[in-house]
Fold this protein.
Amino acid sequence: MAIHLTKESKILVQGMTGGEGMKHTRRMLAAGTNVVGGVNPRKAGRTVDFHDRPVPVFGSVAEGMDATGADVTVVFVPPAFTKAAVTEAADAGIGLAVVITEGVPVHDSVAFLDRARKRGTRVIGPNCPGLISPGQSGAGIIPADITKPGRIGLVSKSGTLTYQLMYELRDIGFSTCVGIGGDPVVGTTHIDCLTAFQEDPETDLIVLIGEIGGDAEERAAAYIRDHVTKPVVGYIAGFTAPEGRTMGHAGAIVSGSSGTARAKQQALEAAGVRVGRTPTETARHVLAVLDSGA
């Protein structure tokens, strides 16, 4: 199994005919992802050939869903049009919208996430790398050739750290890797993924990657303590970050002891999570837990 994305998923790409959409659609297809269509109202009715794989372009998400049975959309549209794109997908009743776009205004994100919740659409992102279930499907920009199928579940705020941990643990492999994005407001949280991995019978261990700023990791720690029985290994980016300065993602700011890597580490360790200070140390913790059978 996997969470949120399997080999049965049928994927539309909003913005497929743009530069980024074309590039990453090609990569998704090469990885075996079942991309069934693109969406661009100005190019509806056309077909785009990807290495002799013809992919039709539809005028709307609803039209694409009706024609193909698509249940996932990946959004590669500019920030100014992201709100409209996700709203359209939610109103069409799509099950999952993966929003890759960065630089989306926070008030737009709040609006389309509220609309999606009301329509029953799960949103991953915005400003995220997407998700991948190795050997089955990938929706977004996560490379498919740096790991293999396995029994580790990974949830991360950071795209780059997602890739690094996937590579560090490539000999073991992953059930699903989810990059939730680092914006102040995102559709899918650490806790959402922890819940899904806890329920997935083919995930044996969970890796949680967080970063300084906010309290998402502290809330995840409380959830792990009360609800997660599988082993969890964590990593927090930003142990060397100076206090009071915004670092990296828009939400990564610390003030005093609030939001620091050390505070997050303490909260996670109190919940029984082993926390590494570097990605390599985190990978060693994973290996140790798996070797011990804990």
Notes: DSSP finds nine helices and 14 strands in the chain.
